[in-house]
Amino acid sequence: MTIACILITHLRAKAELKRQPDLADKPAVIVERRYSGAGPLVVDRFPKAPPAAVGLSLERAASLNANIVVLEADESHYRQVFNGVVSALQGVSDRVERGDLGVAYARMDGLERLYRGEAGVVCAFLKAAPEHLGARVGVAEGKFLAFVAARSSDPLGAARVPEDAAGFLAPFSVDLLPASPDARARMRRFGLHTMGDVAAMSQAAVVDQFGADGRRMWMLCNGVDDSPLAPLPYEESIVERISMPFSSTSMEMLLAALDALLKRAYSRPDLAGRHVGAASIRCGVSGAPPWEKTINFKRPPASWEGASFAVRSLLETDRPSVPIEDVTLTLSKFGSETGAQLAMPEHALSLPNGYARQDRRRRLVEVDRRLRGRSNGDNSLYTVVEVAPWHPAPEMRALQVPVEPSAGDLMKPLYPPTPVDVREGRRHQPTAVLLKRGWSRVARIADLWSFDLWWLPQPVTRVYYRVDSVDGERLTLFRDRRDGLWYRQRA
Predict the structure, then answer these.
(1) Using CB atoms within 10 A of its CB, is residue 86 exposed (0-12), middle (13-18) or buried (19+)?
(2) Does the pTM exceed 0.70?
(3) Spatial CB neighbours of 30, under 8 Å, sequence gap ≥ 6
(4) Counting CB atoms within 10 angstroms of each CB, which of 34, 103, 124, 399 has the fewest?
(5) How confident is the model at residue 156 (pLDDT cuts 50, 70, 90)?
C-alpha cells in the first residue's frame, strides 16, 4: 500500500501571512488562550520569531524576544484553509485521510497510470495546495514512514523512503513518534534520543518499560507500520468570499454582502440543475474570534432569492454584533432533486410583480454584460444599498453592488473620497485647491465641521471644509488628522 503524506508546516503562520503580508519581517507568534489557568500558549511562529517559542507560554516566549508580536489564534480560519487543501487533494485521489492540522494522507495505488507515474502523482498533490503554503510530500509503504519522509523534504518538494526503512528512520528524533509527551520524555531519560536508539533495543525491553505503546513505537522505529488509511467521504462545496470596504456592524451591509455572494455562487455552471442543502456563514472580526453560523435548509432553495430569504430569516434572531471585516459563504450538501425546491418565498411568488422583479433583474444583467463588452470588462450597472445613512463619513453610508453576479469587484463605497492637493494656511485651513485646470484659490469657507471616530477598528478623524473657489465652484474637502492628507468628498 503506497501512501503519500501531504504536509504543510506552520500552516497557521502561513495562513496569517496571506492575510497580513506585513508580518513577514516581524517576530510574530500565534497564541491560543487556555482556560485551565496555564495562560496563553504559543502554537505557531513566524519566520523571524525564535524557533524555540512554539510550545512555550507567552511569558516565556516574550523573554526570548522583547519585540515579539502576538496574534490570537483563529482556529476556524486555519481549519477552513486546510479543508480547502483536503478538498483539492480529493480531486487527485478518492482515498484521502485528514490527520492533524496541516497533515493529510492519500493512497497512491492505481493513480500512477492516470498521472503518468509516481512523480506525476506527487506533482498533482503539490499543485493541489496553494503555493504560498509550501506543501511537502513524503511517499512510503505506511503512513508514519510517509510523514517522516515529508518532514525530511523541502517546501514544494518530495522524498521517498528507501527499501531500508529502519535505516532511513534511525537519525530522526523520537519527538516525531505518535506518543504522549510524557512517553517521549521517559525515552530521553533512558538515553533513547533517536529512532535508531529505540530500534536497537529488544522489543521485550521496550515493552517492559512502555507497555503496549512501547511495542508500537518499537515497530514504527523498525519501519513496520500497518495502520490503515481511513478515507474521508467526498464533500463537494462552493466557497465565495468578500472583503468589506470598511468594518461595520450594519446589518444592511452584511445582508448586501450575503446577497452578492449568493448571486455569484448560484451563477456558477456547476450549480445548474442542483439544489443546496446547507449554507455556512463566516464573518471575520478584527481582534476577536470569527462569528460563524450554519443553516440547514428544510426545503432546498433553487435560486439565490430563496436562499437569501432563509438566511435573512435566521439573521433576524441571531446576528453578529461586532464590526465585520470580511464574509465567507460556503454552500454544501448538493442534490439533484428539484421537486421540492424553493425558488422564492411562497408569499413573494404569489405577488403579481414577484416574477416581474426577477425578469427585470435578468434584463439588467444582460444589459450590463453588453455594456461591459464595450468598456473593457468594467462594471457599468450597480444597485445602491444604504447601510448606514446616519454615518458622518459619506463613503460609509451606502454601497454600490454590481448587478452582474460574476463581477470581480462585488462591493465598493458609493461616495469614495479622492486625494487632492491643497495649500494650507497657518491653521491648516485650505487656501487653494489643485483642480484639473490648475490651482484655484479659495474665496471663502462656507462651512466647517469635524468628527473623531476613534473607537473604530480603523479610526476616522477628519476636519471638513465646504469652500467656494474664486471660479464660483463649491467644493467639499476634508483633512485627515491622522496622516495630514487632504481629500475631496463629492457626496
Answers:
(1) buried
(2) no
(3) 12, 13, 16, 42, 43, 44, 45, 71, 72, 73
(4) 34
(5) very high
Cell of 67: 519585540
pLDDT at 124 over 90: yes
| 97: phi then psi, degrees, rounded to nearest 5 | -115, 135
Which residue did the predictor score with more confidence, 273 or 312?
312
What is the overall mean pLDDT for the chain?
Answer: 84
CA distance 435 to 458: 29
Q: Which residue has better confidence, 340 or 258?
A: 258
Measured distance CA(278)–CA(344) in Å, rounded: 16
Distance of CA 125 to the CA centre of its chain: 21
Alpha carbons 218 and 200: distance in angstroms, whole number: 9
Domains in the chain, please, with CATH?
3-160 (3.40.1170.60), 165-221 (1.10.150.20), 237-349 (3.30.1490.100), 418-488 (no CATH)
Structural Rg of the chain based on CA atoms: 29
pLDDT level of residue 409 (50, 70, 90 thresholds): low
